[in-house]
Design brief:
By secondary structure, the chain is α/β, with parallel strands linked by helices. Helix content is about 40%, strand content about 15%. It has 11 helices and 8 strands. Strands 1, 2, 3, 4, 5, 6, 7 and 8 form an 8-stranded mixed sheet that branches. The N and C termini lie far apart (about 55 Å).
Length: about 280
């Protein structure tokens, strides 16, 4: 009886945390990508964004393409065999570990997110190749000390060896009031020399009025959003050695033939991206 009550309490707590009555950034992103893991409240908010900025679907696709390209680059060209992906979001195939393990079957990946909906679908993140390994930890990017402790406790990656740290499309949900730059500094500070930071971030540089409205929609829905200029995004890489071409509009960062949306303008992309090495 006590076990049944505990199970019911856990299910109730998870249901409450899923915030099914409010639009959720991860479910809205899933909708932009054409996914099915979203509710009517998410679709309503997402359609409001689409009306104001029709290219938001392109932003999502451009981001996914950068995630894949940067992961392949680090595995294939820089020899990275371990990855930590923070702000994972709802699993969308191919997931980062699938991209990496096609290049390096023995690669090890830890996913970290504080979103309960990711926990529901975490099994999709644990389908590692036989030679490699994947883990999922529940942790909040705004508490880097606890996040790093959770990743280390998972015993999947070795912090004494280089790691590819993925912070894609997550830091625009960390406003300055939550010390976004301090968060990145703490995370990178724990990495071994030879590690890399891959980062993407929405920007208002090409359509400030549209992005002011988008920030308002997200904030009113309970998810603070702060987009940043190119110089503000470049600041996340302070003290690191940027890989060419530096911080660039995401679809122009080392594009590959047949990869992602083509004929995309900077305004449609509205996303900066970069990869940098820790010396």
């Amino acid at each position: 009886m006590a076990e049944e009550e505990a199970t019911f309490a856990e299910e109730t707590d998870l249901s409450d945390r899923l915030r099914q009555d409010l639009p959720h950034s991860a479910r809205m992103y899933d909708y932009y990508l054409g996914g099915k893991t979203n509710y009517a409240v998410d679709r309503t908010a997402a359609e409001d964004v689409i009306r104001r900025f029709p290219s938001i679907r392109t932003v999502a696709r451009v981001n996914r393409s950068f995630v894949h390209r940067s992961a392949r680059f680090l595995a294939r060209e820089r020899g990275i065999r371990q990855f930590v992906d923070i702000g994972t979001g709802i699993p969308t195939q191919p997931n980062l570990h699938e991209v990496v393990q096609r290049e390096v079957p023995q690669a090890r990946i830890v996913y970290a997110d504080n979103d309960p909906i990711v926990l529901v679908y975490a099994d999709n993140l644990l389908s590692s190749s036989p030679q490699g390994a994947t883990e999922y930890v529940e942790a909040d990017v705004t508490d880097p000390t606890a996040l790093l402790a959770a990743v280390e406790a998972a015993q999947c990656v070795d912090f004494s060896e280089p790691i590819g740290l993925s912070l894609n499309a997550v830091l625009h949900f960390v406003p300055d009031t939550r010390d976004a730059y301090g968060v990145v500094e703490a995370l990178v500070g724990r990495l071994a020399p030879g590690s890399y930071l891959a980062l993407s971030h929405c920007t208002p540089d090409f359509d400030p009025d549209a992005w002011a409205t988008i920030m308002e929609i997200y904030t009113q829905g309970g998810t603070p959003l702060q987009v940043r200029t190119k110089s503000e995004v470049e600041r996340f890489f302070n003290g690191l050695e940027l890989v060419e071409p530096g911080v660039e509009v995401a679809h122009q960062w080392r594009p590959e033939a047949g990869e992602g949306p083509s004929l995309v303008t900077n305004a449609q992309s509205s996303l900066y991206a970069g990869v940098a090495r820790k010396s």
